[in-house]
Amino acid sequence: RSIARNTTMSSTTTNPLHNANRMKLGVMAFNCSLGSTVTKDPAAWELNWPNNVALATMADAAGFEALLPVGRWRGYRGETNFNGSSYESFTWAAGIAAVTRQIAILATVHAPLVHPVTAAKQAATVDHISCGRFVMNIVCGWNKPEFDMFGVQWRGHEQRYEYAAEWIGLIQRLWTESEGFDFSGRFFSGTDLRSDPKPIQSPVPLMNAGSSPTGQAFSARHSDMNFVMLRQKSDDADRAQITHLKQMARDNGRTSQCWIHAYVVCRDTDAEARLVLKRYVRDKGDWETAAHMVEMFGMQSGTLDADVLEAFKFHFIAGHGGYPLIGTPEQIVAQIECLSALGVDGMLLSWLDYLGECRHWIDHVLPLMEQAGLRAAFRAEA
Q1: Are 141 and 111 in contact (CB under 8 A)?
Q2: What are phi and psi of 182, to 5 degrees?
Q3: What is the pLDDT of residues 55-98, one digit of tens each?
Q4: Which helix (H) or strand (E) holds 238?
Q5: What is the DSSP letter of 86?
Q6: Neighbours of 252 (CB within 10 A)
Q7: DSSP assignment, residue 223?
């Protein structure tokens, strides 16, 4: 029934990323085992397709703006082998697009692992399935054990972004040029290149999470959504970080939304929320895997300083290094108002128990966000 209803939708569907909500909402990482929590807690996310469909349609019906899958090819070892099982993001996006109506569907693609001709066709396919709701999240590459699985060249930090710039430039030509063309670049070459059908959206929105100076420059030139990891040292520092990223985009003749990942523990009392957080992080956390993740992230991403990474072990277990939203619905909405004042445009959320806690968010947090003027009340089309 959902698929039949979706296929009758107009091809001029507006991508919800363009709406006027001050704080946009999404859900992330539920295409992977354990989601974003590196924990042995039995309430953690169980990966299966029915759960994915239930969560996606719940967020879609509530008016959330985005669903983001993680691009993951192997787990992080340790007792839990965090994210050791995952759905590939383009095929996941196609399936989720077919059972949703208004929410933006992202696919995370590692540029060095997917040829641009292939990625162009995959993206256009999902854009048609979704009636113009697709967004491509570009990852330039940092997880070397995953790259070793493919036997591809492991490039230095700077060259990864040079490669990605040529990669996305070629894709954008494939999305827009009606005639075949020859291409000879530094990293790619081909004759009579073409890709049809073209995406419904023109241009297709792009997302990138570059956080190093080189990554920030790449995002400023190419992305419509900058996925930011806030340093969380102070509000002033976070505000300056976001202001800088948006100014860089303007300097490149673009506007770019700043999104963050936030992990949520929301309960009726602050004490109860803190107790749940302690249970699944301090008592049930997979600290061995968290240490391994922090080591990899620090050596290969260039995002955070060594002293910050050590403190981030807790946040990696609680929500893969995201921003903590902990407390009662009222406390969390007050925190969201502060994030909006810093310049944050959207949040990709994760929880320990995605299905139960997303429902709780919709019932208890979302109405308060509307009352605070952070979002307009959502009315689904008949």
Answers
A1: yes
A2: -90, 150
A3: 999 999 999 999 999 999 999 888 999 999 999 999 999 999 99
A4: helix 235-251
A5: B
A6: 14
A7: -
pTM: 0.92
Look up tokens 């080189």; give the residue. 214
Phi first, then psi: give them for residue 261, nearest 5 degrees. Answer: -95, 130
Burial of 30 (C-beta count, 10 Å sphere; 0-12/13-18/19+): buried
Distance in angstroms (rounded) separating the CA atoms of residues 63 and 379: 8
Stated as kind and residue range, the H or E segment containing 266 is: strand 257-266
Residue 100 carries which side chain, given as an amino acid letter? T
Answer for the pair 25, 65: CB distance below 8 angstroms, yes or no. Answer: yes
Whether 256 and 249 have beta carbons less than 8 Å apart is answered as yes
Contact 83, 76 (CB under 8 A): yes
Tokens 């059908």 belong to residue: 197
Q: What is the pLDDT of residues 170-228, one digit of tens each?
A: 999 999 999 999 999 999 999 999 999 999 999 999 999 988 899 999 999 999 999 99
CA atoms of 188 and 211, how far apart (whole Å):
26
Give the whole-angstrom CA distance, residue 30 versus residue 182. 39
Q: What distance in Å separates the CA atoms of residue 367 and residue 12, rounded to the nearest whole number?
A: 29
Contact 102, 381 (CB under 8 A): yes
Closest by CA position to 138, among listed 60, 63, 210, 194: 210
In angstroms, the CA 135 to CA 138 distance is 10
**C-alpha of 103 from chain center:** 14
What the block records as the tokens of 39 is 């924990």
Contact residues for 352 (Cβ-Cβ < 8 A; gap 6+): 37, 39, 41, 43, 44, 45, 265, 276, 280
Give the span between the Cα atoms of 373 and 308, in whole angstroms: 34
Q: Which residue has the tokens 């107790």?
A: 275
pLDDT mean across residues, the chain: 91
* Dihedral (CA of 293, 299, 305, 306) sign: positive
